[in-house]
Amino acid sequence: MNSSKPQWEQVGEAFVQHYYNTFDSSRSNLGPLYRENSMLTFEGEKYLGVQQIVGKLTALPFQKVQHQIVTCDCQPTQTQPSGILVFVNGNLLVDDSQNPLKFSQCFYLLPDSTNPASYWVHNDMFRLNYG
Amino acid sequence: MNSSKPQWEQVGEAFVQHYYNTFDSSRSNLGPLYRENSMLTFEGEKYLGVQQIVGKLTALPFQKVQHQIVTCDCQPTQTQPSGILVFVNGNLLVDDSQNPLKFSQCFYLLPDSTNPASYWVHNDMFRLNYG
Fold first, then answer.
1. Where in this chain does the record put each NTF2 domain (chains A, B) (predicted)?
2. A52 at the B interface (CB within 8 A)?
3. Contact B80, B38 (CB under 8 A)
4. Which of A18, B33, B37, B118: disulfide with B112, CB 3.0–4.6 Å?
């Protein structure tokens, strides 16, 4: 991690590394990153709260998955609380396919009110970019 | 506009129609949608405030441009003030090219403090998705 980067960029980049490592190894463990008012829009379908979101993610019909991050852009927001927008573009390798699918994903991270160094996913929007 | 849609979806969809219509007809007129603390990350390059942002957008090296929206996902945020995240995936036709470029763009809209029905662009992140 490059300490000359702004804090929100360090947080955002560390978050996506952790998020996709967890997703690709055991996506049922993503629950602690979401809360009851977290929102996921996955290919246009809407899910609210930990149970719906993790239910959707674990039901996705593949056994093996690998996210490759191509770009990761971060911006802070001047709201209360102040959050971090993280915008990822990358490749998705599913099961034994040799042809990566391109995806885009936008996360909005908010700090934990009792532990501001810890962030959770308030908003999550995912789309595959068909070629 | 479908009145059964939630308000944030109506606002987000109307915003992107207005934004890309303005961009494609006369992008120097995008200024009023941004403010001094607006942020743009365009293909990884960072711009802050109306002057830098509109300066970048008007300097883009094409004469004709057309954004085609393929998907537009919106989510509200439970911050103060409450904003709207808008996540667009689409095609970009530049000058006389017949080959659309795929793009993804994420906007974070905040309400005007004196006119809450009016929104401005606090955050804007844009990426081309090369095939």
1. 11-128
2. no
3. no
4. B118
Q: Is the ipTM of this complex over 0.85?
A: yes
The interface residues of chain A toward chain B in range 14-43, judged by CB-CB distance below 8 A, are 37, 39, 41
User: Tens digits of per-residue pLDDT, A72-106?
Assistant: 999 999 999 999 999 999 999 999 888 999 999 99
Partner B contacted by A51 (CB < 8 A): no
Q: A106-124 pLDDT, tens per residue?
A: 999 999 999 989 999 999 9
Provide, as residue numbers in chain B, all residues whose Cβ is less than 8 Å from the Cβ of A131.
102, 131
Out of A37, A79, A85, the one facing B106 most closely (by C-beta) is A85
Whole-Å CA distances, A130 to A63, B99, B119, B126, B129? 21, 15, 31, 18, 10
Point out which residues pair with B95 in neighbouring strands.
none
Q: Which CATH number fits domain A7-129: 3.10.450.50, 3.40.1380.20, 1.20.1640.10, 3.30.360.10?
A: 3.10.450.50
* HEC letters along B17-79: HHHHHHHHHHHHHHHHHEEEEEEEEECCEEEEHHHHHHHHHHHCCCCCEEEEEEEEEEEECCC
